[in-house]
Specification:
Blueprint (H helix, E strand, L loop, with lengths): L6 E5 L3 H13 L3 E5 L2 H7 L7 E5 L7 H10 L6 E5 L4 H9 L4 E4 L4 H12 L6
Parallel strand pairs: 1-2, 1-3, 3-4, 4-5
Length: about 130
């Protein structure tokens, strides 16, 4: 049975993020799927089903910004929220300029994530 809840995919090489973030997203009322790499996400077919994407900026292999470029190349317009453990202001500014919904520094609050999701979906959802 397919869920009617919007699907948010998480792409992060950090296992603890992949385990905890989907639980939080489900608490917010979303469906959630986690991937350990951009390549895994792209190969999964979930790029067609994902309605919002949360991706780490720095990952082995394809980075979050490279994933954003690849999705644009594939003409997949999905709202992207970037998360990072690095305070790279220039990179964050570039990502926002390229159309990212938000760029959240780790650790981020539940409220900051919810606000970014609301912006990505263009609606005001409450947990």
């Amino acid at each position: 049975m397919m869920s009617k809840r919007p699907l948010v995919s998480v792409v992060d090489d950090d296992e603890s993020v992949r385990e905890s973030l989907p639980d939080l997203l489900r608490e917010f009322g979303y469906s959630a799927k986690a991937f350990s790499s951009a390549e895994e996400f792209l190969a999964s077919g979930y790029d067609e089903k994902t309605q919002c994407l949360i991706a780490d900026i720095a990952m082995p292999g394809m980075s979050g910004p490279e994933l954003q470029s690849e999705l644009k190349r594939r003409e997949r317009r999905v709202p992207m929220i970037f998360i990072t453990a690095h305070g790279l202001e220039r990179v964050r500014a570039d990502l926002m300029e390229q159309g990212a919904v938000a760029c959240l520094p780790k650790p981020f609050s539940d409220q900051a994530l919810l606000e970014a999701l609301n912006a990505g979906f263009g609606m005001n959802l409450r947990p």
